[in-house]
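Dear Dr. K.,

Following up on our conversation at the group meeting, I've run the structure prediction for SAM-dependent methyltransferase from Caryophanon tenue. I'm pasting the input sequence below exactly as I used it, so you can double-check it against your construct before we proceed with anything downstream. Let me know if the numbering doesn't match what you have in your notebook.
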Amino acid sequence: MNAQKLSKRLETVASFVPTGAVVADIGSDHAYLPCYLVHRGVASRAIAGEVVQGPYESAERQVRTEGLADKITVRLANGLAAVTPQDQVDTVTIAGMGGPLIVSILEKHPESLETVTRLILQPNIHAKVIREWALQHGWALIDEVILEEDEKIYEVLVLQRGEMTLTEQEILLGKFLPARKAPAFVKKWTREYDNWKRVYGAIERAEATLENEAKKQELTQYMTWIEGVLR
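The predicted structure tokens came back this morning:
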């Protein structure tokens, strides 16, 4: 992977960036994504934010090597602290972290999102918590993608400002993903279903407690959803 050729998951993230966007890529690592977006004329300007010194220096080098120092600003900062109101950022990308960490980044500096109209988030795990956060903070899902790369399954969630409603099932499985039944979706939830089945069996053999009964009910609900979607 480099600034000309992204990984499949980052290419998917890039595909949802609007033309002419001012982008902040949080946790930018080598700044491949912002460089790619500016090279292709998708982003007009970009900020590459990185909290760790080593990746920050790598990003700075990459931007200089690509000859993009006039279009991409690299900042050493924790999460959205890399973004100032003067930047007029309208699109934020956060990729390659767990859902809970992405949510904590979004919640820590809400003032940095004031000019932002689109979030493109790629959680490695626990996409559910991002959907919950979106519901509570006035963001609406406009698209979702699930894909497999290097034997790992990733989801990409695209959010715009606006209201939405989601069922408990949609919070867990996604608003758009169940109807599409991509191979990665089927693989992920078949694996989860088998795991829940094992856990349910273990609880059945354990001592009957209120907590165990509640867990069995939850697992039964989840498995029923999966059976309905994958049938």
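Two things stood out to me. The chain is about 45% helix and 25% strand. The first strand starts at residue 21 and ends at 26.

Best regards,
J.T.
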